[in-house]
Amino acid sequence: MADDDVRGRSGEPAVTSGDPPVIRSDVPGSFPWSVLHDRHPALIRKVGDATPYGPDRRRALDLLLREITDGVIGPLERAAHDRELWESWDRGHVGRRWDDAPFLWAESYFYRKLLAAVGYFDPGPWRGVDPFEPFKQAELLGKGVEAELRALDGVPGMPPGEQAQTLLQRALWGNQADLGFRLSAGGAQAGGRTTGLTADDSDLLWPAVDGPRPARICFVADNAAGELLPDLALIDHLLHARGAREVLLHVKPTPYYVSDAVPADVIACVRRLSAAGGRAGEVGERLWGAMGSGRLAVRAHVFSCAPLPYSEMPEDLREEFASASLTIMKGDLNYRRLVGDRMWPPTTPFASAVGYFPGPVAALRTLKSDVVMGLGADVVTELDAGGRPWRTSGTHALIQVRP
């Protein structure tokens, strides 16, 4: 199936021939080009410096650096346990230049090859060792996280509506805590938030949670540590204050995009909350109990690491999203996969790109890549007039909902 003619599992077209082309990395100086040519080589070096890998792993990292520098996409190792799966996701890109593949596909494949280089899947001492764990751990124990946890002490004194909006906003702006973004030159630091949103459909989000029956929420997480902590505080609010029946927390099955959350990161963050004392400690204890009772369940579907849009999700994942009162998609990558990583005119209605999705869906995202839609014409005019790269700077955010 060609990437420009994708159909959802229901048969409903997710895109049409009139839609803009997928975003690629073949324009020197563009944001996607800088990720493949600047961010990824820098990340290979940082991963090699952060863990005492032996000579064989370092040679593999050097070979990966040479591959992405030379520009030709190589196949996975012959004995790879998931080679057949990635071949089904290939779409004919292996053997071609990295720049010619869709940006979303090329980024995802790079991270799979990085795991191969560090021996993540191989028998031996590095099997299952997260190459990004040193970065995640440093953030989880940092001063910024401590301040975020202490800020939760002020939430119980707020009116109920203000509590909900505060926790939603903290989860939204927590998406700035993206280690892959920060490791690149010019990445915005957490705390650089602006005061307004480019789009705000939060008035449509809460009715989906507070519907006629106890809600089942699918929460598709993005990053670990500094972002996952406010996500978990929001999940606690959904379960404890809003009476949701259950929350299904989707994370990545393997390390991905530097700081993307995996199951071990969920456990680490719940422990961090529980040990913090104060309001954060209460949240952590409730979440621990919710995981034990099954009201908070962790999912790690293999498609979470697929290099494809959600319009191509497998049937079992489609059925789970269809069963939810609301699916909340966190972060920039999930947004790109949700709407399709295309250079949409920014005023294109959000609902027009997510009509394939099997249930109500909300996006909480700070802008860190080119794709964006659902904005008012006046908002776009004002942002463009500022002369700054508002699409990729991480200083603007949105809440978009298709009920």
TrEMBL record:
Stretches with biased composition (Basic and acidic residues): 1-10
- Protein's UniProt keywords contain Cell inner membrane: no
The UniProt entry's GO biological process terms, in alphabetical order, are: DNA damage response
Names of required cofactors: Mn(2+)
Q: Which Pfam families is this protein grouped with?
A: ARMT1-like_dom
The answer to keyword Transcription applying to this record is: no
| Catalyses which reaction(s) | beta-D-fructose 6-phosphate = dihydroxyacetone + D-glyceraldehyde 3-phosphate; beta-D-fructose 1-phosphate + H2O = D-fructose + phosphate
Q: Where is this region: Disordered?
A: 1-25
Q: Which domain of life is it from?
A: Bacteria
Q: Which GO terms describe its molecular function?
A: metal ion binding; phosphatase activity
User: Damage-control phosphatase ARMT1-like metal-binding domain: from which residue to which, for each copy?
Assistant: 36-376
Q: Which UniProt keywords apply?
A: Hydrolase, Manganese, Metal-binding
The record's listing under Gene3D superfamilies reads: Uncharacterised protein PF01937, DUF89, domain 3 (3.40.50.10880)
The record's family statement is: Belongs to the damage-control phosphatase family. Sugar phosphate phosphatase III subfamily.
Instruction: Indicate what this protein is called per its UniProt record.
Output: Damage-control phosphatase ARMT1-like metal-binding domain-containing protein
